[in-house]
Amino acid sequence: MSTPVDDPLAHERSHLASSRAALRAMREDVESLDISDVTANWVNAEVLSRQIDERIKSLADLSDTPLFFGRLDYLHAPGAEEAEGAEGELFYIGRRHVHDAEGDPMVIDWRAPVSQPFYRASKKDPMDVALRRRFGYTGGDLTAYEDEHLSDPAEAARTSRLLQQEIERPRVGPMRDIVATIQPEQDEIVRSGLGGTVCVQGGPGTGKTAVGLHRVAYLLYAHRERLARTGTLVIGPNRSFLHYIEQVLPALGELTVRQATVDDLVAHVEVRGTDDAAAAVIKGDARMAEVLRRAVYSHVTMPTEPVVVVRGSRRWRIPAYELEETVRELLTRDIRYGAAREALPQRIAHAVLVQMERSGEAPDDRVQDAVARNSAVKAAVKAIWPPVDPAKLVLRLLADADFLAEHARGVLNEDEQKAILWARPARSVKSAKWSAADAVLIDEANDIVARTPSLGHVVLDEAQDLSPMQYRAVGRRCTTGSATILGDLAQGTTPWATRSWDEALAHLGKSEGVIEELTAGFRVPTDVITYASRLLPHIAPGLTPVESIRENPGFFEVRAVSRTAEVVAACEELLRNEGSIGLIAADARVPALSQALGAAGLAYLAPGEETTEQTRLTLVPASLAKGLEYDYVVLDEPQAVIDGEPDERTGLRRLYVALTRAVSGLLVTHAAGLPEQLG
Fold this sequence. Notes:
Elements: H1 8-31, H2 42-58, E1 68-74, E2 90-94, E3 98-99, E4 105-109, H3 117-120, E5 129-138, E6 141-148, H4 161-168, H5 184-190, E7 198-202, H6 208-222, H7 224-230, E8 232-236, H8 239-245, H9 248-251, E9 258-261, H10 262-265, H11 277-283, H12 287-297, E10 307-311, E11 314-318, H13 320-332, H14 337-358, H15 365-372, H16 375-384, H17 390-399, H18 401-408, H19 414-420, H20 436-449, E12 457-460, H21 468-476, E13 482-487, H22 501-508, E14 514-518, E15 520-521, H23 526-532, H24 536-539, E16 547-548, E17 555-560, H25 564-574, E18 581-585, H26 590-599, E19 617-621, E20 630-636, H27 638-643, H28 648-659, E21 662-670
Helix pairs in contact: 1-2, 5-6, 6-7, 12-18, 12-20, 13-14, 14-15, 17-20, 20-21, 21-22, 25-26
């Protein structure tokens, strides 16, 4: 690459323009491809056409997104001997690889090994980097740069001003990537290998969600062929959250990652009912897996009659004791109920073939298959090992007290059994008012009958709110793959919230997973996180409080009000600032606030709807605030947030979540007294 000229900013702008032109040329090259002569049939043509469409989308140039955000000047060419006089190289680091007409790189993908020092190099360990340059942008225009001479002992280490500005940049629209601001401890997690499962404990604003998404992008870069076969999945707590994060991976050029909620994964039945907290906790307990296993295998009946197979003029008799030996052997094997049921007729047929061979016949595989399909064999299999419908099985467990008692004996006590039994048993699967927890039980039963297909990698966000049975449902989707688990024990707001990450990993089937903790806060201002951390001793006394690295303490105020109109006025006040505004309130308070905003003529959005320059205010029920972020937050009536939950600890955790959604400022309004835990 060429040597910088005397006007660095002009040179960098020129390189940006050239890189954008090169990216357009790369896209045009793909668009002009003619596949008519290289596809043998319409199936190949369809597959190749889809691949080309995805490639074209991945090469999109987002006008307001910097094509590169940094530059590395190496002392020596990477991989070359560090001999005296060896010439160094410089590389521009960006969201995707861009090359010129000759194939020479103009922008290096942030995930490439040569880009790693941009995130990890320091004055203590320069990693052979002479200069690290960060770029500042206004929209898509390059407007500033900042240099660190990492190998110069005369230059002192300092905090990057542009890095701080990028972290604090106002948020309008969906969540954006953090590719320009990844910190060393985050980069270690992002670049950890595909084979291992990583669990990230991170307080508010530590970037755990972004780290998880960037890890997916990195793994797709490093193991593209393998993950193209096995698939990747991001699991979020609700649709609003998924809508909020859905643009991060496409912005990094990754378009093939599926997104879902846990409810989506287990949608075997229509969920129309709800459980009380006591029933939901028991249904979500891992002990239910054993109850279900017993219930499924209770359908197996030991044979008492022989099987007689008639072929032509010959009769072949398999005695009951021999059939029982086969059934017991299948029961001891670690295979699914359905797989064992499919194996049983072949085992019986094999026993018949052994008798045929002893009598001097020479049967082949076709004869064995024919015997396996014999009506007598089919009848025996149906009697011994009947098919099981998972939904009907769970229906019977929840509706039939005797059936539940038989299979829950020694696992659930009588009170626990009563708690999960339906007061009004449903007559059929379709008429039942299934709850979300019931759907998870059906998914477990389904897996006992037939193995759930595994993906290559699963990211599970806001994991602290999952029940043990939900963890098992997620774990089934990555039995032969790996996972990234993201969460914060202090933000657990369900009655069954996770108590420890070791326990969660065990339920996932990933006990070997590594637990990492992020404690540096990038999103929440110092004054705001300090105020919210007053709740930690009451909700998660063992956790390390988040320490904000923001130089700007942020705007913070606690304001007593007497009328709802004053809450609306607080929103109008914050709307004078740049960026997004979130009005967070207890769910029960949302209708009144909605009416007050409407009366004031103040337009607002629902969670998950994308903010625009014209509409920057979102009215957020506290139950949906988790994972979202806004430049400024008005938090209405903290005590009402606590009172809206079934118990004080859960209420305090919900309040902790609500208090930590702000990026630039927080205004707490209250007519009632403040919770004593906030001092």
